[in-house]
Fold these 2 entries.
Entry 1:
Amino acid sequence: MHEINVTELRKHLHQHLASVQKKKELWVTWHGKVIARILPPLDEKKEALNQLKKLRGSCKVIDVISGTDEKWEAD
């Protein structure tokens, strides 16, 4: 993470965007307060795979077609 004020960002936009492209996060400040974050793009396929790996241990595969012998009431 790197903090930079708006004026500095305007002066050297190309350089700062190049650093974001190299996977560095940039926080933009205005009057000392963070107003924006510029993040490198995500690899959506890789991110989805990581989320599936996290869920792997908490999911159950069940049979949703066979009945459970429970009676259902329709409204």
Note: The chain has three helices and three strands.
Entry 2:
Amino acid sequence: MPSFAELGDETFVSLTTFRKSGEGVPTAVWVASMGDALVVITQETAGKVKRARNNPRVELVPCSVSGKVDPDAIPVEGSVEVVTEPDRIVQLMRPLRKKYGLQFRVMMGSKRKPPAGRAVLLITSADDASA
């Protein structure tokens, strides 16, 4: 099982956010490390953003581009903060831009300003939150 920090080295992770009912909703996402945290960029109107605002608990596990998870994989718990401030988004996008290079620029545009309608999920380890 990868540690929280090692998840930042994965190409894709399955990010599970939780509905008010407690039901988990997994989504395959790009992820990058930024210090002791992980960052994910997404549409500001995405369901995972709404769920993260209601419940900061998340689970992460390595996956394929299609979201397929190894049946023996054990999720790592984290806590998420939704970031929508343009200046912070620019800063938090840097590790994603560096890690995914051309793919990132094609998906997000080559400009260094935050793409309109985007949010960054800043994820910290649940172990750090409880320490």
Note: The chain has a mean pLDDT of 89.
